[in-house]
Predict the structure.
Amino acid sequence: MLNGAGAQLQRALIAFMLDLHTRQGYSERYLPFMVRTETVFCAGQLPKFADNLYKDHEEDLYLVPTAEVPLTGLHMDEILDEASLPRRYVAYTPCFRREKMSAGRDVRGIKRGHQFDKVEMYIFCKPEESDEWLEKMRLHAEETCSALGLAYRLKQLCTGSIGFQSAITYDIEVWAPVAPSG
């Protein structure tokens, strides 16, 4: 839970990122926080990440693990006209995952939680342009860190850590100081 200045900072960061990315040419979307199994499957989260997802079995709905799931579902049953591409989206969602936590401590240097907020960029484009658009998105994400004065590093994930729908996945890790415990 965030209170006072912490809650205001969280809200301000989300608004800053949405505003920055819309200025970069992305169209903002407000997405549902729950999606059907079909959408999660089509977004490449199932079956690989089934153990990390929260599911309401009575309604056959999943809490979104990342905004890319409902963004993928935007055009799931459509054939997009090539002339309408690229379609560039940005969205904020809270994300829900069953990631193992160690009572708030670092887990191999990474803070993990069951609920966290994300602002994500997403592009539907022609396959032959996907590498170019991925690099543009990466630059836009790095611009976000630079604009906030954050120390960060770029990591390309190994094949075993990405979904089958991805050829390349980058993580941008931001350095955050932690007060010594005890």
